[in-house]
Amino acid sequence: MSGYRIFVYFTPDELPATRSLTQSCAVVIDVLRASTTVATALKNGCKEIVPVETVDQAFSLAGTFDRQNVLLCGERKGHKVAGFDLGNSPREYSKRTVENKTIILTTTNGTRALLKAKKAEKCFVLSLINLSSVRKMFSENAADVHIICAGREGDYSLEDTFCAGSLIRELQVYHSGRLVRGNQQAVHAIELAEKYNDSYLEVLQQSEHGKYLESIGYEKDLIFCARRNAIPIVPIYKNGKIICERKTEHQT
Fold it and tell me: 66: which residues sit within 8 A by CB, 6+ positions away?
């Protein structure tokens, strides 16, 4: 086919059970904070990231590794899980901490969205900090594109939908006339991106989850996550692991 049909889902549950992603491309977004953390960890040299749904699964899987080579990471309600090495703040994932390590990750929203997309032909992990890098991965003859927003505990999230719309706007610039908005959610996402334009930090600060993170002491994470195109990394999720598909040149 020529061009794209773009579908946006405000939460993973909106993806119809009958919708097969096996011939499609998926993009998973959790701006605050899992997608940003994934890109940061890969940029700083982690070997791979293995998303799992539950805390028990994370502990069980970690037991199959040499403990020196694996990091247990993630959060519940924004806070680091007891017994884990790291939480879900991307600022924790320094080169010194994560280089050459396997990261087992479970989060309230992001990893659930990733697991929903695991059967896609390709699945990219998107955040504001790698927006243009992911956009560069699309050719003019791509299959359908399904953008899955992690949302917030099953509900709509402003920041993820804004990021989805920002990606579509960039695709429109480079593939003018070749995009078909596959559902009404895609239209809304574009309108939201046009409304806020490049006011990335404002979006995060106005979002419900952004306000919550600020209330529990993670206001600096919002600034970190709002840095457009700061990390030219394309994370791809395949065979149960997230690895770095490509590092691209910075683009502003």
Answer: none
CATH of the domain at 71: 3.90.1560.10
> Are 189 and 164 spatial neighbours (Cβ–Cβ below 8 Å)?
yes
Structural domain contains residue 247: no
Q: What's the number of domains the chain is made of?
A: 1
What's the pLDDT tens digit per position in 202-238?
A: 999 999 999 999 999 999 999 999 999 999 999 999 9
- Residues of the chain with pLDDT > 70, as a percent, come to 93
Whether residue 114 lies inside any domain: the answer is yes
Q: Can you give the pTM of this predicted structure?
A: 0.94
Is residue 106 a contact partner of residue 51, using CB atoms and an 8 Å limit?
yes
The half-sphere exposure of 159 on its side-chain side, counting CA atoms within 13 A, is 32
Instruction: Note whether residue 121 is domain-resident.
Output: yes
